[in-house]
Amino acid sequence: MIADEEALFDRTKSRTVYVEDHVSVLGGSMEDDLARSLRRLQDKDEIFDLVHRYSYLVDHKRPEELMELFTEDCVVDYGPGVGPPRHGRKEFRAMFGSNHGSTDERPAFVVTSHHNSNVLVSFETDDRASVRTSVYAWHHTTAGGTPRVWGYYHDVVVRTLEGWRFSKRQLRVAGSQGWDVDWHPLIDPAEA
């Protein structure tokens, strides 16, 4: 073997290096990092479910269950043409009354279909996140109209004992059809 090495290698340039492995504790352990990463993925999944459950419950006319997705002190704002921001579950629940009060100027919804995509979650802390969700919403009214809206929900969600809940929800609109009301613009000039 020595004869082969002499033919293959220049032994005068060979060096010996001894290496020892140590586990670093800088920034926490790998187990802590893994647990935090897994928790963050689980939180994102729960927030995605929250966003989609909202649309399901609205479309299936289940307002009592819908209220459970919001904090008690929530603020919900669909735009100035729809009404003032609703503060708290009680005010928000009142929006989902019966169709008996519908008029030609303000017809009620017979059925709706909300479609969400492009859900972006930005964690502010471990227990609070900003969420942006693209939405297309189709409505069929008691007057026979089918107004539509395209835009984004701007949400703040918080972790509660019951899980992730909406603390704030605002609809910002890129466009609408069959709905002649004032909306919050998709891009707020103050934020541009």
Main features:
192 residues, alpha/beta, Nuclear Transport Factor 2, Chain: A, 4 helices, 26% helix
Mind explaining what this structure looks like?
With 192 residues, the chain is of the alpha/beta class. It has a single domain, classed as Nuclear Transport Factor 2, Chain: A, CATH 3.10.450. The chain contains four helices and seven strands, in the order H-H-H-E-E-H-E-E-E-E-E. It has helices at 2-8, 30-59, 63-67, 88-94, and strands at 70-77, 86-87, 109-125, 128-141, 148-160, 163-177, 184-185. Strands 1, 2, 3, 4, 5, 6 and 7 form a seven-stranded mixed sheet that branches. Strand 5 (148-160) and strand 6 form a beta hairpin. It is elongated. The N and C termini lie far apart (72 Å). The relative contact order is 0.14. The model has no long low-confidence stretch (mean pLDDT 88).
